[in-house]
Amino acid sequence: MIPPVASQFLAGETDAEAIAHAEHLTDHNMGAILNLLGEHYDDRAEAAADAQTYQRLVDDIAGTDLTACISVKPTQLGLDISEDCFRLNLDPLVRHAYEHNVFVWIDMEDYDTTDETLAAFEEHAVEFGNVGVCIQANLRRTKADLERLADLPGKVRLVKGAYNPPTAVAYDSKERINRETEECLRYMFEHFADGVALGSHDPELITLAADLHAQYGTPYELQLLMGVRDSAQYDLAKHHPVWQYVPYGTKWPSYFYRRMTERTENIGFAFRALNPLS
């Protein structure tokens, strides 16, 4: 059972709870990006089981009026075991989602998974088009990656980056990462005709995205974390396309810990959920 201090950031432990939260978001003119928690599997059976759960989730979404899609982690589908294991689970899932008109996001994990993740995205974007991938602005390679992806179908989500890669491959100052994110966002609005996704709660970036949309006309969406200023998200959705990243499942402790450690403000959000008047 998820304790109250963590439940603000999680939809629950079951598929049914995740779907119920997606219904709530649809009623508030928001989309749901459903993510079954799990990562860094070293057991083929565990990776295959999560892939099957995602296929059932696609079935649950298909044929409804929900504004919802799914998001998977490469190491959840077996990338730590082998690239072949990852593709054995990802490929039929993307095809199944395509056949049921459900979009699939491929999350980006630590820097040493970038090549395999982008290769998988490129192949499925060309074949199906119903896929997206995450790009992290703190990596030194990201501008070159964006140039490589600009003409592909599918979508790209830009984030600042939640991992801590070595300085040989990444920028480590907050100011430099902010500048890189802004520059990458500008490039995407100029060159990504199929649209831009911004995964950030940074008000300055959200304002910049709206200004760039007005300038270039490029379609875009905001992707925000469940549990972080939810009321503000509902307000944003009145004026901007907003999708909420909705994690769920029994493997919630590691996710909750990461949310608490990546931004000190999240600790306050969590404990205010216990005492809204504090």
Layout of secondary structure:
Layout: H1 4-7, H2 15-27, E1 31-36, H3 44-61, E2 68-72, H4 83-99, E3 104-106, H5 114-127, E4 131-136, H6 142-149, E5 155-159, H7 174-191, E6 196-198, H8 203-216, E7 220-225, H9 230-236, E8 242-248, H10 252-262, H11 264-274
Parallel strand pairs: 1-2, 1-8, 2-3, 3-4, 4-5, 5-6, 6-7, 7-8
Helix pairs in contact: 3-4, 7-8, 10-11
Polypeptide structure, described:
The protein is of the alpha/beta class. The protein is built from eleven helices and eight strands. The protein starts with a helix and ends with a helix. The relative contact order is 0.15.
Report how far apart the termini are.
Answer: 25 Å
Average pLDDT rating:
91
Specify the helix fraction band.
40-55%
* Radius of gyration (Å): 18 Å
Tertiary shape = globular
Q: Note the beta-strand portion.
A: 5-15%
**SS element count, helices:** 11
Low-confidence runs: 266-278
Number of strands: 8
Name the CATH architecture: Alpha-Beta Barrel
In short:
The protein has 278 residues and is an alpha/beta fold.
